[in-house]
Design a protein that fits this description.
This protein is an alpha/beta fold and 382 residues long. The chain folds into 2 domains: 5-175 and 367-380, Glycogen Phosphorylase B (Rossmann fold); 188-365, Rossmann fold (3-Layer(aba) Sandwich), CATH 3.40.50. The chain has helices spanning 13-19, 21-29, 44-48, 66-82, 93-106, 127-147, 156-162, 188-197, 220-231, 254-261, 276-282, 298-305, 336-346, 351-365, 368-380; strands at residues 5-9, 33-39, 53-57, 87-91, 110-115, 150-153, 168-170, 206-213, 236-243, 267-271, 285-288, 310-313, 328-331. The two termini are 15 Å apart.
């Protein structure tokens, strides 16, 4: 293959490391010269240690205020002036908008925008959020008209909502690390340590797992309230793995979470964890009652890769993961009652059989090979 030079631009170094590193290594193996363009948030050395070229931008684009955006744009201008890329592949809203505009003006690179979900602005319908939606659509359409980037979506709902017309592709999900998220690669000692560390209930208990940023739009409040109701009828345990986002107004904090789970020994908050494969392994059902505008939730894909049934909502990015009552249950968003009923229902089912169905769906539609091959095919046809 011709040695093409490609830039992968992510919001954060941690996002690149967790979600794009395997893909970057795959591209290198195919002969591409790969550069990660990310802020220095402590992950640059880790990314470099895998042999990926890194160009740092000085600012966290997710920080508040227009100044951060202008500084980020300034850094991209410098990078694009001194580096010639054949392909510039941007991920997420702000790299898509800012990166495409600057690359379109300064370079002759082929541009790929990866829309990994529409986010919080498309969750609400107040005047403020409708204005944010309108601005987002205008900016995407402006770039699309002037610079003709290829747009890669993770679900068809986002294509419809943004209203883009040309060079559109749908690649389901972003793949998961199949070496880590495999039933064959689990550390039993790590599982035993987790059980002891958090005094997890073990005997005849069905474990439900939630992994996410602790935003209210992820359905965490409804989940806890619904789980409390279901606990009256079933021997169940809820494991909450997540982190608080100080930059997001809808994030819970430690006090608000403690107030919700106080008095319930079968609801365990494990905080932010690195041992997600082991935690999924010791769980029986993965649950994400989100009403956030997801692309395709990585946690659910990881769970499916590890043969777990899932409960999630009839929301863009989630509903295409479930064949209802086969590999999981689809429920209405924002409903405590629906969560209660879905837990009661799934506790009566053969979970191993549902988990096998999840794995079959994952392998047929969402595997690393399928996702990576689809993206490389897009590059070949630019």
């Amino acid at each position: 293959m011709e040695n093409k030079k490609i830039a992968l631009i992510e919001n954060l170094g941690i996002d690149f490391y967790n979600a794009r590193l395997r893909y970057a290594l795959h591209l290198q193996n195919l002969g591409y010269e790969v550069y990660a363009i990310v802020p220095d948030d402590g992950f640059l050395v880790k990314i470099k240690s895998h042999g990926i070229n890194v160009i740092a931008v000085s600012n966290n684009i997710r920080g508040p205020g227009i100044i951060n955006k202008l500084k980020y744009a300034r850094d991209l201008i410098k990078i694009f002036r001194y580096n010639q890329f054949d392909i510039i592949h941007t991920y997420r809203l702000q790299p898509n908008i800012i990166g495409t505009f600057i690359a379109g003006i300064l370079t002759k690179s082929k541009i790929v925008n990866h829309i990994t979900g529409l986010g919080a602005a498309f969750n609400h319908f107040s005047i403020k959020y409708k204005l944010m939606q309108l601005v987002t659509k205008i900016l995407y359409r402006f770039n699309n008209l002037l610079f003709r980037p290829v747009s890669v979506f993770q679900n068809h709902y986002d294509i419809k909502d943004l209203g883009l017309k040309k060079k559109l592709f749908c690649v389901k999900g972003s793949a998961v690390n199949e070496d880590r998220f495999s039933c064959d690669s689990i550390s039993i000692s790590k599982i035993d340590f987790l059980i002891k560390q958090y005094t997890l209930l073990q005997e005849d208990v069905i474990n439900f797992l939630f992994v996410s940023r602790l935003l209210k739009e992820k359905g965490i409040v409804e989940l806890i309230e619904g789980f409390k109701l279901a606990s009256k009828k079933n021997k169940i345990q809820l494991l909450i793995v997540g982190w608080f986002d100080d930059n997001n107004k809808s994030s819970m904090n430690q006090n608000s979470l403690n107030d919700l789970i106080q008095g319930y020994d079968n609801i365990k908050f494990l905080g932010k964890q690195n041992n997600i494969p082991e935690i999924i392994s010791l769980s029986d059902v993965s649950i994400l009652p989100t009403y956030y505008r997801e692309g395709t939730p990585r946690f659910l894909l990881e769970s499916m890769a590890m043969k777990k049934p899932i409960i999630t909502t009839k929301m863009p990015g989630c509903d295409h993961l479930v064949l209802n009552n086969e590999n999981g249950i689809l429920i209405e968003p924002r409903s405590v009652d629906a969560i209660d009923k879905s837990i009661n229902f799934i506790c009566t089912k053969e979970l191993k059989k549902m988990g096998e169905a999840s794995y079959k769906i994952y392998k047929s539609d969402f595997s690393e090979k399928i996702v990576y091959d689809s993206l490389v095919d897009i590059y070949k046809n630019l």
